[in-house]
Amino acid sequence: WCMKMGGPAGEEGTKGACCPPDSHPTLLETPGFMGTTITIEGVDSAGPLPVYTTGPTIGTSGRVAVVYTDVYGVESGHHKRYCDQLVARLGAGWSVVMPDLFRGNPAMQPSSFFPDFLAALPMIYRLKYRHGKDTVLDRDVSKVLVPWLHGLGITQLACVGFCFGGYVVGQSLALPESPFSCGVGIHPSWTVGKLFGETEMELAERVGAKPVLLLPAGNDSTALMPGGDCVKLLAAARKVTENDVSVPFPEMKHGWCTRGVDLHNSSIARDQADALERCATFMLQHTR
């Protein structure tokens, strides 16, 4: 699965491409989802953007929550189930959309033929050269997804993301005149920014006073936990407590929400439900 970059001679600045060591591995897609996948017109040569939608028809709802996936993409794990659960918890007036920012070619594609560290090497390449800020934020979010939603009359947007998607949440909130009222990062990987020369702290500085809630796992970056430098900065910018910015899940491993399976550990289902509730409550508080 995802891992630290760099071998024995790896530089400190390139560690932590995405998920920390001892994270949950990939998981096949959970069946039984209720939404549908549509395509919206893309820009440049990227082609149409697939989007999973669930809840009321977009345009009849007043608010939309955008879900950003982890590196395994929309066709994996609990992503679609989470979207269905989130829209049910948010209630009337909400729809949920999940863009396939990888367009069917996820950043992380595990192989049964190669060790995990070899599977991670192509992931690093894809993140750096195919799914950087210029393609994910500047193109697909800013020029495709958001204009499409605005064209349907949606003006209230929130976002939530997992792993790599948590990094996209931070980037979405840091956009100039960001259209997003708030964002939630669940086991977020802000260390992805190192691939593009940006530290976690530099991203936090750009997010500033934008309402963000971080729900890190026990093995996620300490910078995104209470007492960490990023959380201190974000709390000061918003004039709230550090516990208003970050609520760690110390018993969980990175990936528990999208890839965690409750076979021998009942606390996974408990904390998945807790994270969902905290996400929905935060979105309801920060959108009107």
Structure, described:
A seven-stranded mixed β-sheet has the order 1-2-4-3-5-6-7, sandwiched between helices. The N and C termini lie far apart (39 Å). The protein is an alpha/beta fold. The longest helix has 21 residues.
Approximate shape: globular
Oligomer classification: single chain
Helix-strand sequence: EEEHEHHEHEHEHHHH
DSSP strand tally: 7
Instruction: List the strand order in the largest sheet.
Output: 1-2-4-3-5-6-7
Write down the overall mean pLDDT. 86
How many helical elements? 9
Query: Unreliable segments (pLDDT under 50, ≥5 consecutive)?
Result: 1-16
Characteristic terms for this protein:
288 residues; alpha/beta; seven-stranded mixed beta sheet; 9 helices; 7 strands; 36% helix; globular; disordered N terminus
Short description:
The protein is α/β, with parallel strands linked by helices. The chain has helices spanning 79-90, 116-129, 133-151, 164-174, 200-207, 229-238, 242-245, 256-259, 266-286, and strands at 36-40, 49-54, 63-68, 94-99, 156-163, 180-188, 212-215.
